Amino acid sequence: MASVNKDRLTKQRRSWNMSRIRGKDTTPERIVRSQLHRMGFRFRLHERKLPGCPDIVLPKYKTAIFVHGCFWHRHRGCGNCTTPTNRREWWLAKLEGNAARDQRHQVALKKLGWRCVIVWECEAEDLQRLERILSALTRRMRPPVQRGARSHPAGGRAFGQTTRSTPRRSDTTPRRSARPRPRVATPRRRNA
């Protein structure tokens, strides 16, 4: 039995509309980032070295935050989690595949020792709810205790690792003048 196309838009127009759906810097993602920044956190975005390319990464706390759209990632029990009536079988396979892929990425991150946090689009829209979620998250987060100078898979320094290779200057060491030194011109050598 041939499927009947119930779409009101032409195939080209639907393709154009779907191509405009962004995967990065979505409104819910920007809201979560803004709230985290307001709470004093510094983070990285879309870290490709980690499984699933998390939307927000807190390397110091080994925490990966995914900001999921309720429709695209199947937020069960949410009013935004609907299935289109047009090409229903295709959409079900696509959306369930997205949810299965999300699960695989979370398992891979947990095996690497990372904490995974999912913030849903509907949670990001309600600022009070989002603040409660992020506050609960921050109460549970403590920097991991690491031994040695291993760095995170996402780059950066491990907790407690400094960039200094020399000891700090003591009070007895004379400080340099704030005035810049005059430059002395040196003659250039000519290649003979």
What's a concise summary of this model?
It is built from five helices and four strands; from the N terminus they run ααβββαβαα. The chain is α+β, with helices and mostly antiparallel strands. A four-stranded mixed beta sheet has the order 1-2-3-4, with helices on both faces.
How would you describe what is shown here?
The protein is α+β, with helices and mostly antiparallel strands. The chain has a domain of about 120 residues: Endonuclease, Chain A (3-Layer(aba) Sandwich). The protein is built from five helices and four strands, in the order H-H-E-E-E-H-E-H-H. Strands 1-2-3-4 form a four-stranded mixed β-sheet, sandwiched between helices. Strand 2 and strand 3 form a beta hairpin. Helix 2 packs across helix 5. The longest helix is centred in the middle third of the chain and has 24 residues. It is extended and about 80 Å long. The protein starts with 10 loop residues before the first helix and ends in a 52-residue tail after the last helix. The model has no long low-confidence stretch (mean pLDDT about 75).
Please supply descriptive tags for the structure shown above.
alpha+beta, Endonuclease, Chain A, 192 residues, 5 helices, 4-stranded mixed sheet, single chain
